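input
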Amino acid sequence: MKIAAVLPFILISACAGVVDAPSLLPRTAENADIDAPAPPPVRPVATDAGQAALIVRLIDQAKQSNVAFERALPAASTNAPPQSEAWIAAQNARSAVDVARGPTLDALSALDVAIGEAIDKGQDTTALTAARTEVQAIYDRQGAKLDALIR
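output
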């Protein structure tokens, strides 16, 4: 009789699915030795002269690209009706404006690569990051001006 009373519960529990619940086992951090000494801080390697020269060259490249961009910008601005000769000339000038910002994007990409290489070598990336921020600001200003022409 006792088996007959328990048998339905055994059969029902066999139909239950697997529950995806968090484990109640201790986490890795809970098993860590809190009295262990902290690892020594990693001291970054100082920026070398080659890196400094690269930064100067890439910032100069972005600035020269911005000068070309600003020179090409006035020709790309028009309120002429679509499909008119002035409108077509402005569309061609917009393409030239977009091409003029290419070296800025190249400088930005080169800085990204340089930052990655510096991280791999354990070098300080402060100067590279600051240069990247400066070049990114130039590229963003160019993009905003180009977007204003399209609207």
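quick obs: The chain is about 70% helix and 0% strand.
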